[in-house]
Amino acid sequence: MYPANFDYARPTTVDEAIALLAQHGDAAKVLAGGHSLIPAMKLRLARPGMVVDIGRIAGLSYIRESGGRIAIGAMTTHAEVEGSSLLKEKCPLLPETAAHIGDAQVRNKGTIGGSLVHADPAADYPAAVLALDAEVVLMGSRGARTVPIADFFVDLLQTAIAPDEILTEIRVPATSKSVSYVKTEQKASGFALAGVAAVVGPQGLRVAITGVAAKAYRATAVEHALAGQRAPRPDAIERAAAHAADGVDPLGDIHASPEFRAHLACVNTRRAIERALARA
Ligand SMILES: Cc1cc2nc3c(=O)[nH]c(=O)nc-3n(C[C@H](O)[C@H](O)[C@H](O)COP(=O)(O)OP(=O)(O)OC[C@H]3O[C@@H](n4cnc5c(N)ncnc54)[C@H](O)[C@@H]3O)c2cc1C
Fold first, then answer.
1. Is the CB of 191 under 6 A from ligand 1?
2. For 38-53, what is each residue's pLDDT tens digit?
3. What is the pTM of this model?
4. What is the rounded CA–CA span in Å between residue 280 and residue 275?
5. Inter-helix orientation angle 234-241/258-278, to 10°
6. Minimum-distance ligand 1 atom for the alpha carbon of 36
7. How remote is the CA of residue 123 from the centroid of ligand 1, in Å?
8. Are strands 63-66 and 158-159 parallel, antiparallel or unpaired?
9. Among protein residues, the one whose CA lies closest to atom 1 of ligand 1
10. Beta 217-218 vs 204-210: how paired, if at all?
11. Cα angle value 152/167/67 (rounded, 5°)
């Protein structure tokens, strides 16, 4: 199916893009890699009157160390994240997660900024960035603001970004190699039925889960159950992982029932913690 008619602009600076977004309000949509927006437009789930293509704005694609963190430009593709030697060395959870996304075509076109703003409940990055305690930089008509990732994901396909804002950068901390991402995917698309990211750090264990609920979430009950344990025994990990879906309302669809998703969340949480600890 063809998308509904739309106007198209290809700004060359972030300021120009923001001005277009401010001018067109809710009618405008940013186009990044197009691997979520274009299918939504073809299905007429999205009908933007103005598409603002940010693909020609220089300087939105990079991975570099900055102020003790690693900064990733929003237009950095999944393939670039997957292949980054800086990330493999300093924040290996992101390349590991990127490698799980879709297929080579999706990874070559899709961007980390687009994935986070789209906030698909089954997308992979949301679990990783929550477990990493990342932050995102949003630029709009009123200037730039930095938002902790826990405040960014609001609900199904909804984030804290305003209509006139562009996500320009994602900031993550350096971690040890003691991280992992374990997912059970929907076989045709690769999207997560339950994807679990685990990070073992100086502050303890952080676990975040995607694919199970309307938005990705931190599995705080699991984290609390293992708090203070540097080398938990397998039975303690299994007991803690059983709380992976506590307090959430699991999604159900033709691919997996709510019960199955909750079960996968527990199994993959145990595996993700075990794998992260084994890499310590
Ligand atoms: C066949 C297929 C399989 C896939 N499998 C997976 C998978 O296994 N795991 C997974 O996580 N994802 C998967 N995806 C989704 C893919 O990762 C998308 O690339 C990603 O979700 C969106 O990134 P994009 O750059 O393509 O964004 P776009 O499609 O261009 O945009 C998505 C949304 O974000 C907004 N947006 C984009 N960039 C910005 C920005 N910088 N600032 C403000 N708003 C912005 C757009 O307006 C739009 O609303 C799959 C997609 C396809 C088509």
1. yes
2. 999 999 999 999 999 9
3. 0.97
4. 9
5. 150
6. 29
7. 9
8. unpaired
9. 189
10. antiparallel
11. 90
